[in-house]
Amino acid sequence: MNEKLKWVLNQHYLGKDNVNQVTDLLSHFTLEQVRKVGQFQCTYEKFEKTPLHYLESLASFIGVEKILIKDESSRFGLNAFKVLGGVYAIAQYVAKKLNKNIEELSFEQLKSPTIKEQLGELTFISTTDGNHGRGVAWAARELGFQARIYMPAGSAKERLQNIKNEGAYAEITSMNYDDTVRYTSQLAQKNGWVLVQDTMWNGYEEIPLWIMQGYTTLIQEIVEQIQQAPTHVFLQAGVGSFAAAVVAFLTQYYEHDITFVLVEPHVANCYYESFKAGTNEFVSVGGDMQTIMAGLACGEPNPQAWQLLKAYTKVSISCEEEVAATGMRILGNPLNTDARIVAGESGAAPFGCFYEIMTNGRHGQLKDTLQLDSDARVLLVNTEGDTDKENYRQIVWHGKYATL
Ligand SMILES: Cc1ncc(COP(=O)(O)O)c(C=O)c1O
Description:
Blueprint: E1 5-9, H1 23-26, H2 31-41, E2 52-54, H3 56-62, E3 66-71, H4 83-97, H5 107-110, H6 113-119, E4 123-127, H7 131-143, E5 146-151, H8 157-164, E6 169-172, H9 177-191, E7 194-195, H10 206-225, E8 232-236, H11 241-253, E9 259-265, H12 270-277, H13 303-312, E10 313-319, H14 321-332, H15 345-359, H16 364-370, E11 377-382, H17 389-396
Parallel strand pairs: 3-11, 4-5, 4-7, 5-6, 8-9, 8-11, 9-10
Antiparallel strand pairs: 1-10, 2-3
Helix pairs in contact: 2-10, 4-7, 4-10, 7-8, 10-11, 11-13, 14-15
The structure holds pyridoxal-5'-phosphate.
């Protein structure tokens, strides 16, 4: 049987005051940059902030000062945070083609027939485990462009259908996530389509960076909504773009050091394995990476995210499926007047790990290392709602992946 949690201390940890190695990357995540992104996102006529919940009863039950959860399950009506990246990257791409700054353009202007005439037909292509592709398909449809979305083997039919419902061409391939990314990149080159991928590699940097910047809108909202800065932030990682964007902004925004903890599933734990190797370069993991945490099923880190997460992550955790499942059940069944949070598999994984650390005496050393005590104010992001409704019911109602 697999261990529920494995963890490793990051030997490369630099802390807040030692930013030289990542100064260039940090410059894309300053308050000024983040405001610029937020200003564009708000031009969408139905834009609404997502809620930040204080789970007070749960915090006193578990023994920390605060548990704060930013709930992204209602973002743009799409059940996950991912659209923030796709829509911002597409808008930046169009702005660049028009020789304009994003500040000069609104969502509505991008939809205008004059702009379509100037640009002609554009097709955006991407690989996804569900959420990113749905966001790209949504943004393309809203703005009047085409989208083609490819999913790795084993992807949920419901997630495929959600993408088709946005008017995109979509299919499930027979490859794993990383191979599907390579395949879509080739298709883009061959057909002149625009690749909107949420990870980067040599020669493909601009769009992934815009995607990471797009995510910062949720962090800007958090720092506006929060009453007191967090001491700990637990973040889920697939390729690590999301976690790196959060870390890059919060590190600059707050004066104190924050303890950042990364969370991945055992079968796709490329950050955990990289920190364990202790080398300067990351290591990749392969295989079919079947996990209920589909959004985290990536075996190769985004190299820029790796630079940032290597500098600021304290501890990296790899977890068993049942840890995420327990997180989903607890968040969906709150104590007293705490808010009910419908958290999908990838959304609940960090909370599941946090709960496991706090309630299972076997993790005493990890709890002490992280100083998770009655002064801790722990921030988490529910990055998705029930994006696979059947699996949600199986887990929450019928006890799939329950610990007996
Ligand atoms: C719901 C959800 N959470 C977290 C992530 C992880 O984001 P990243 O791949 O940038 O690490 C994803 C990625 O698709 C996701 O869909």
